[in-house]
Amino acid sequence: MTAALLAASAAPSAYAAPATALDGEPTAAACETLGFRPSTYNEEARFVRGRAGLAAPSAGFLAKPAPQMLIAPAPPLPPGVTPYPGPRPGAVETEKYPSAVANPIRRTVEEPVSTFSIDVDTAAYSNTRRFLKDGKLPPADAVRVEELINYFDYAYPKPMNRDQPFSTFVATAPSPWSKDRRLIHIGLQGYELPRAEQPPLNLVFLIDTSGSMHDDDRLPLAKKALNTLIGQLGAKDTVAMVAYAGSAGAVLAPTDGRQKLKMRCALESLQAGGSTAGGQGLALAYDLAKQNFDPKAVNRVILLTDGDFNVGVADPSKLKDYVADQRKTGVYLSVYGFGRGNYNDLMMQTLAQNGNGTAAYVDTYDEARKLFRDDFSGSLFPIADDVKIQVEFNPAQVSEYRLIGYETRMLNREDFNNDQVDAGEVGSGASVTAIYEITPVGAPGSSDPLRYQSARPAAAPSAELAFLKVRYKLPGEATSRLIDRPITRADASPTLAAAPEATRWAVAVAAFGQKLRGDPRLETGFGWPQILDLAQSARGRDEFGLRAEFTQLVRAAQDGKRINE
User: Fold this and answer.
1) 388: Cα within 13 Å, side-chain hemisphere
2) What does the alpha-carbon distance between residue 385 and residue 371 come to, in Å, rounded to a whole number?
């Protein structure tokens, strides 16, 4: 199948002159002209195949000439097989999340250095929003605090050029949930590529068409999301499509970005049915991306799925190794999650973090527009690879510290200078935010000092709280570069109310995430009303209403119930 697909993708017809109608509504008549017709899947047959594990032929495409193959209708049910009488796929709660214990408080004299890979994923925020809008509190493991914080724009100062693609922002202020501690707010702002400097796109849409994707918030929403992305494409861009369920197959051979109607018709032909052969689909998509690889382009597989892989390679550790190997070829992987009930966040995080891409969760069409239109550049045009942050704390000023979030992104101290160690990717115009909570020297600590050890003298100037270092690679380069700066008393605000708006908002979101996780470090008396007041004080300019929506989520959390209550 793969060899045939690659041969088809290389066919000259894939890049033939565009048809007269380059874009428009994918009506039956328009799509028939382009060689596509709607699928005639029997809905009950889809459910039976999704439940019984029978191979539906959703990727057993009709043998039509290149550049595209079409989905065949499902055959009649086998004799003796009746429609599945139970709930449809997704009705049973089988969601999976990475298990990560909150970062501990560390004593500076024992461990003065903190190192982590940046993370600009936002999946946890929209997934948390989905739970709260349903009147439920999310599972603690579903709440990755750094992804909640990084959902928002903080209007950090912009860098001046592409060669040093980050500007730094630092502010410190008293912690609102602990009277003896302070917070260090660190922000990085990425360089925004002018449109003329944006490289061409070589994309492969890898679309889950298994039976579990039938609901309106799954495949139908995924189609709307991709139609939004298709609207952003230009003539220099190329898109192919692969669908997978039971087996994997090509839906659309590589097609230039002008032929939007053809892409929309290919999407319209997709229907959900069958079990999920995710591993096979990944292999096919990577092969197609490498066949059309352009060293000057963004070469990326874009996976849209609920993550419920159940045929072929479904072990997250094996898929982790596979996508880690594939990223070395220059083809990256971004993952977009859909659905509820069987959403496999563990799989999504494994694939995105090891595929050098981003992970997002699409709960509404508004979120689809945000991801594929408003944040289009930040998700697809990389400005830096393997971005790592390291903070060294001054033991003369800081007795303890803890990093809020980033539990799945922690690195060893020696990893910071090792250019072979993979880290996060940052896209055009994207920002990165992190918050440390520190205990100043002289304030009560969380643990007793060691009996047989003494504090080491500080080598740094007494005005320095810490020293920040950022290491990154420009796209295509193998050797990292360094940005550094001290964190001093000049970065401090005497009260949280006097801190910059960006800091107050980031702290409010951090408090929200910690409260949802049940973090014991939030002192008694600091609850939802205090979080809401802090957020209200920092709403500022809210062009798209995202901060107003957040305040509603805080209110919803006050009344939310745990799952199964």
Assistant:
1) 26
2) 20
d(CA 97, CA 173): 33
Residue 47 backbone phi and psi in degrees, to 5: -65, -40
CA angle 413/415/416 to nearest 5° reads 80
**pTM, rounded to two decimals:** 0.85
Tell me the two tokens of residue 531: 């979080």
Backbone angles phi, psi at 360, to 5 degrees: -140, 160
d(CA 453, CA 16): 74
**Alpha carbon distance 303, 361 (integer Å):** 12
Listed residue (558, 561, 517) closest to 535, CA to CA: 558
Q: Are 74 and 273 in contact (CB under 8 A)?
A: yes
Residues 245, 59: contact at Cβ < 8 Å?
Answer: yes
Residues 6+ apart with CB under 8 A from 525: none
At 387, give phi and psi (nearest 5°).
Answer: -85, 125
- What is the rounded CA–CA span in Å between residue 454 and residue 109? 8
- pLDDT per residue, tens digit, the chain (565 aa), is 444 444 444 333 344 444 457 999 999 999 989 988 765 443 333 333 333 332 333 332 222 333 333 333 333 333 433 332 223 444 456 788 988 899 999 999 999 999 999 988 999 999 999 999 999 999 999 999 999 999 999 999 999 888 899 999 999 999 999 999 999 999 999 999 998 999 999 999 999 998 888 899 999 999 999 999 999 999 999 999 999 875 568 899 999 999 999 999 999 999 887 665 667 788 889 999 999 999 999 999 999 998 776 545 556 677 888 889 999 999 999 999 999 888 888 888 888 888 888 899 999 999 999 999 999 888 899 999 999 999 999 999 999 999 999 999 999 999 999 999 999 999 999 999 999 999 999 999 998 877 887 655 555 557 899 999 999 999 989 999 999 999 999 999 999 999 999 999 999 999 999 999 999 999 989 999 999 999 999 999 998 999 999 999 999 999 988 766 5
314: alpha, beta or left? (left if phi > 0; alpha if psi -120 to 50) = alpha
DSSP conformational letter for 96:
B
Which token pair is 144? 């990755």
Q: Which residue has the tokens 């979101």?
A: 509
- How big is the chain, counted in residues? 565
- Take residue 441 and report the two structure tokens written for it: 């020297």
**DSSP string computed for 147-215:** HHHTTS---PPPPS-SSS-EEEEEEEEE-SS-TT-EEEEEEEEEPPPPGGGPPPEEEEEEEE-SGGG-S
Interatomic CA distance for residues 184 and 64, integer angstroms: 60
Under DSSP, is residue 238 helix (H, G, I), strand (E, B) or coil?
strand
50 SS3 class: helix
